[in-house]
Each structure stands twice: as structure tokens, then as C-alpha cells.
Amino acid sequence: MQSVFHSRLHVAVIMDGNGRWAARRGWPRARGHEAGVEAIRRVAEAAPEHGVGTLSLYAFSADNWRRPKAEVRALMGLFRLYLRTETARLVRDGIRLTVFGRRDRLPDGIPEAIGRAEAETAGGTRLHLRIAVDYSARAAILAAAIQARACGGVGREAFRRLVTGEPAPPDVDLLIRTSGEQRLSDFLLWESAYAELFFTERMWPDFGAEDLAQALAAFRARDRRFGGLAEPVAAA
Ligand code: IPE
Ligand code: IPE
Ligand code: MG
Q: Does residue 140 lie in a domain region?
């Protein structure tokens, strides 16, 4: 059975530009990441009103381990704080939180905190908030291929579930990237096969409900054909 989230939109966001946002103000990059957490709150709060059922946010990529130790530490500290302070608000707002990506390389205590937050928010039905941490789409696809082979091969739907993990989200409808960059940086490659792409110059810490509304308006004006034709035409 499809979950309550499947009849609504799946929006994915590559939250980019925190560091440049801070640097332009002469502040340390970590301050940009702090402001980025505020943007997560704003967008998660606004999303259900705009018909979004699933919101997937790229918080930390598998390649982000290449950053200086101090920045990685600051990001992990913020994530830990988010899990500790945000869970009650998520429960209140009916938001289900799940985290995807590798957990075995995260600092001590974080995998347990993720498990607690996921368990406490499991009843939320207004929005499925998915946060990607230590995530690589190519690694997820490769792991799924290895599992599929061990099963002697699986069909497309079963393979999709191996790629996405549980609870399996619908395909991405709209993928937004902030900060002017126009690339996918190894995010949700399988799930975004037919996603509409929306790039904005807005830095993530400045992103808010109005930006989300603007992106969704652009999305709704697009013509999604999925390989078919826009208008019904007489058979040739
Ligand atoms: C996005 O902002 C957050 C993470 C990747 C963790 P950045 O930290 O990439 O900010 P810029 O792109 O350097 O401005
Ligand atoms: C992608 O942003 C990862 C996240 C937003 C978490 P990056 O800033 O790390 O991506 P690149 O290096 O510009 O491609
Ligand atoms: Mg960046």
C-alpha cells in the first residue's frame, strides 16, 4: 500500500550557499550553516500548505568529508543539536522525520539520536521530511545492485525500494538547488529521473516560504510529458 505521502508532491532541495552567505558578511562559514537550519524550519513549516507531502533535503554529502575537520565538526554539532531540539516541534507539527545515507561514519551518539527522532516522529502524516546525511546517490545505487544480485536479480519496483530504502518515497517531482550552482552533486540520481529542475540564485540561508511558492509555481507551469506527448493526438 502507498503511504499517505504519495498523493502529494515530492520536493528535493540541494541546500547550497551557506558558506558564501556567511563569507559575504565577513562571518565564519559555521554561522552560515546555523542560518541554514533556520531556513530548514521555515521551509518544512510552509511545505504542507503548498501541497508538498515529501521534502528531501541534502544536508551533508559523502564528499563533504573532504572539508576541513573544524567545518565537519561544526556541521555534525548542528545536526546533533537539531535532532535534540527539533523533535518536539516536528511531533507538534505532524512531521515525520527520517534520515538517509550512511550512519556508520557519523560521530558517536548521532546514529542513536537519529533513531530516537525517527521513532518519536513516526506518526506524523502532514509531511515526510527526509534529511540526507553522509549521502551519495551513486553509493546507494551500487549498494542496491549488490543486494539485487544476492537475491538473484529483482524487478524495477523492488530495485527502486533497494535504492531508496524504507520508507520508500515517491519519485522526485521538483528538485531545487540554491546559490546559483547548476549541478546535482550526487543527490537522488535514480529518484530524479523525471524531476523538474529549478535553480535559483538565492543562498540557502535566505530561502523562505515565498521562494518555495515561486519554485512550485514554476513547476506547475511546466509540461511534464514523461516521454509521451503533451496533447492527445490521433494515432499516426
Ligand atoms: C551547503 O552550503 C551546506 C553543505 C554543503 C553542508 P555550503 O557549505 O556548500 O556553502 P558554499 O557552497 O560553500 O557557499
Ligand atoms: C552539495 O553541496 C551537498 C549539499 C548541499 C549537502 P556542495 O557545496 O558540497 O557541492 P559542490 O561541491 O559545490 O558540488
Ligand atoms: Mg556548496
A: yes
Q: Does some domain include residue 235?
A: no
Q: What is the pLDDT of residues 51-90, one digit of tens each?
A: 999 999 999 999 999 999 999 999 999 999 999 999 999 9
Cα dihedral value 30, 33, 34, 37, nearest 10: -170
- Nearest C-alpha to atom 8 of ligand 2 is from which residue? 16
Summary mean pLDDT of the chain: 96
Determine the straight-line distance between the first and last CA of the chain, rounded to whole angstroms. Answer: 38
pLDDT tens digits, one per residue of 134-155: 999 999 999 999 999 999 999 9
How far is the centre of ligand 2, averaged over its atoms, from the C-alpha of 235 (Å)?
Answer: 46
Point out the residues that are catalytic.
Answer: 16, 64
pLDDT mean over 25-46: 98
In ligand 2, the atom with minimum distance to the C-alpha of 183 is 14
Q: Examine residue 112 and state whether it is found in any structural domain, yes or no.
A: yes
**Residue 156 domain flag:** yes
Question: Residue 223: phi, psi to the nearest 5?
Answer: -110, 105
Q: 64 CB less than 6 Å from ligand 1?
A: yes
Tally of domains within the chain: 1
Domain range enclosing 188? 2-219
What is the whole-number distance in angstroms between the Cα of residue 54 and the centre of ligand 2?
21
Residue 126, domain CATH? 3.40.1180.10
